From TrEMBL:
Any one Gene Ontology BP term: transposition
Gene3D superfamilies: Winged helix-like DNA-binding domain superfamily/Winged helix DNA-binding domain
HTH marR-type domain boundaries: 97-153
InterPro entries assigned: HTH_MarR-typ, IS30-like_HTH, Transposase-Integrase, WH-like_DNA-bd_sf, WH_DNA-bd_sf
Annotated protein name in UniProt: Helix-turn-helix domain-containing protein
Every Transposase IS30-like HTH domain range: 5-45
GO molecular function annotations of the record: DNA-binding transcription factor activity; transposase activity
One GO CC term, this protein: cytosol
PANTHER family xrefs: TRANSPOSASE (PTHR10948), TRANSPOSASE INSI FOR INSERTION SEQUENCE ELEMENT IS30A-RELATED (PTHR10948:SF23)
Length: 282
């Protein structure tokens, strides 16, 4: 029976087994591990309904680093609270549906004191290969969360986080839910609506369609998020004309977004978020 610690592939197999409805004993037999190893692993990392392989792997590695004793030759290891925060930040985004390495890059960019970071900076800080960074940056550029700015002096590419990054993250999550719904609908056609599998897939498709629609919320919702993103980044109150100028929109579109915020959040909450001047214009 193999010994040693669970690796990332083991955790992926555990997650797949739980998803398939297997018990701990059956998963343990397949991995040739003690049942107690599987039960402890799942209990420490969200339980059977909340277990996520990537998050469990990060969390276990983080716990191991915190427990590791200092080497007599080097003295006590100084923990870096910011680095641990970045990893927890990334793990939260992984749970939200973003790829693992893209989440780490995004978390680092967002928490960096510097406005931009180069690929070499990211490789050095995250301790990963240039290929991993290139793939992660490519994904973040495709979904609009990061863009490049050239450095004409040193001929380097600097990576900058998008101003509306959380709106983009929300849109990615909504698109992911829609993809799940479409995949379930495809399965229904394959197995038939009147079969047990078809019934399960119908429930899945309905759930993710509703979730995607709720997250997308139509144009008013998206415009509301964009307006709030500008207000959140500003160091002062903005009126409707200033918001329109920042967004490149007609004033009427800004007013509609503010009306939407008022109707969905309540007058007091919207005024606090948007500023008395802008809401007063509405």
């Amino acid at each position: 029976m193999p010994g040693g610690r669970l690796n990332h592939q083991d955790r992926l197999d555990i997650a797949a087994g739980l998803e398939a409805g297997l018990g701990y004993a059956e998963i343990a037999r397949q991995l040739r591990r003690p049942t107690s190893t599987i039960s402890r692993e799942v209990a420490r990392n969200g339980g059977a309904s909340g277990y996520r392989a990537d998050h469990a792997h990060y969390a276990t590695a983080s716990r191991a680093r915190r427990r590791r004793p200092a080497s007599p030759a080097t003295g006590a290891r100084v923990l870096d609270p910011k680095r641990e925060y970045v990893e927890r930040f990334a793990a939260m985004m992984v749970d939200g549906g973003l790829p693992r390495m893209a989440s780490r890059v995004l978390a680092l960019l967002y928490t960096s004191d510097s406005r931009t970071l180069t690929a070499a900076d990211l490789v050095q800080i995250l301790r990963v290969s240039p290929a991993s960074i290139s793939k992660a940056i490519g994904y973040l550029e495709r979904v609009g969360m990061v863009h490049r700015e050239p450095d004409p002096v040193r001929r380097l590419q600097h990576y900058v986080i998008a101003d509306d990054v959380w709106l983009k993250a929300w849109e990615v999550s909504a698109r992911t839910n829609y993809s799940w719904a479409e995949l379930a609908a495809e399965g229904i056609e394959l197995v038939g609506r009147d079969t047990p599998a078809g019934e399960r897939l119908m429930h899945m498709a309905d759930f993710f369609h509703r979730l995607s629609e709720d997250m997308s919320g139509g144009g008013g919702f998206q415009d509301c998020l964009a307006v709030l993103a500008v207000l959140w980044q500003s160091d002062r109150r903005l009126d409707a004309d200033e918001l329109a100028g920042s967004l490149g929109w007609p004033v009427e579109r800004v007013m509609d977004a503010l009306d939407y915020a008022i109707k969905t959040s309540g007058q007091d909450g919207a005024e606090q978020a948007a500023g008395e001047d802008a809401v007063g214009e509405a």
